[in-house]
Amino acid sequence: MRNLDVTTLRSFIAVADTGGVTRAAGQLNLTQSAVSMQVKRLEDMLGQTLLERANRSVSLTASGQQLLGYARRIVEVNDDAISRLTDQVFEGEIVLGVPHDVVYPVIPKVLQRFHAQYPRMRVNLQSSYTTGLKRQYAHGEINVILTTEGGVDAGGETLDEVPLRWIGAPGGSAWKRRPLRLAYCRYCKFRDGDIGRLDDEGIEWEMAVDSDSDRTVEATVSADLAITSMLEGHAPPHLECINSGGELPDLGMQKINLYGGQSRDGIQRDLCAMIREGFAAR
After folding, report:
1. Among 72, 2, 75, 87, which Cα is nearest to 42's?
2. What's the gap between Cα 238 and its chain centre?
3. Over the stretch 2-29, which tens digit does the pLDDT of each residue have?
4. How far apart are CA 215 and CA 69, in angstroms?
5. Which run of H or of E encompasses 259?
6. Helix (H) or strand (E) segment spanning residue 156
7. Where is the signal peptide (predicted)?
8. Residue 92: its pLDDT value, please?
9. Calpha distance 114→16 (Å, rounded)
10. Which residues of the chain have pLDDT under 50?
11. Which residues are CB-contacts of 181 (< 8 A; sequence separation ≥ 6)?
């Protein structure tokens, strides 16, 4: 009877997730040769080629894809058993603040992974606007925050930079009407800049929604009664980016920043590392 080694499977998963031995080694705090040796040992034991190696990148073979699902389940069961039976138990709460428009798709996966590693730690997820989150973080009310902003302040680090796009109903025509009807929450950080760009272009506009509720904005836009702006790749499925052919002004780029990643608390640092890896894998 042959047995799969959890450490070897963990290295294989890291290579599959990061797309390279070098990045996997950095994630696992191992040398590149150690990771390569573990994957080779796994291939020798199974008698299968698991990775296609080309230049500096790797991809999974059909056998590798098949093993990956099993490997994840084996490692998950192993980690769950260890976390539940070990005497070293971490308990407590971390407060994580995230703007509503960048919660998906990364944060749910991060929360799932964090819970598997620290099952007795609770993450209190708070969704708000960047301005409010930064104020709460400065007052020590939130441990870790993500923000969407044009720059980055001291103590922050940029995880991603994505275009801000005009958003409307699928196949909608609200963006063609004048005055252009807009829907924003009162505290939306994008609002003033977007309006300023419309004014610079001489585009007449009016506010169709001025609300505290993101749901109200989304409902109005999905009904093709107004348009709004969101980060590319983060709009809900019932809305879409508008291709105006240059009839609406370009909205520029926005940074997704992380604050709290330099904490001395090991568990908080682990949460931030998972957030970094989640955005890097997008």
Report:
1. 2
2. 20
3. 899 999 999 999 999 888 888 888 888 8
4. 36
5. strand 253-259
6. strand 156-168
7. none
8. 86
9. 19
10. none
11. 174, 205, 206, 207, 208, 225, 226, 227
For 119, the enclosing helix (H) or strand (E) is: none
Are β-strands 205-211 and 57-60 bridged in parallel, bridged antiparallel, or unpaired?
Answer: unpaired
- Separation of alpha carbons 152 and 143, rounded Å: 18
Nearest Cα to 227, choosing from 164, 170, 166, 165? 166
Q: What is the three-class DSSP state of 252?
A: coil
Q: 113-131: per-residue pLDDT in tens? A: 999 888 888 999 999 999 9
| Domains detected in the chain | 6-85 (1.10.10.10), 91-282 (3.40.190.290)
What is the distance between the alpha carbons of residues 86 and 41, in angstroms, rounded to a whole number? 29
Q: Tokens 């992974």 belong to which residue?
A: 113
What are the two backbone dihedrals, phi and then psi, of residue 157, each rounded to the nearest 5 degrees?
-140, 140
Read off the tokens for 129.
């606007």
Of 118, 58, 60, give the one whose Cα is nearest residue 93.
118
Q: Is the pTM of this model over 0.90?
A: no
Distance of alpha carbon 208 from alpha carbon 42, whole angstroms: 60
Burial of 73 per CB tally in 10 Å (0-12, 13-18, 19+): exposed
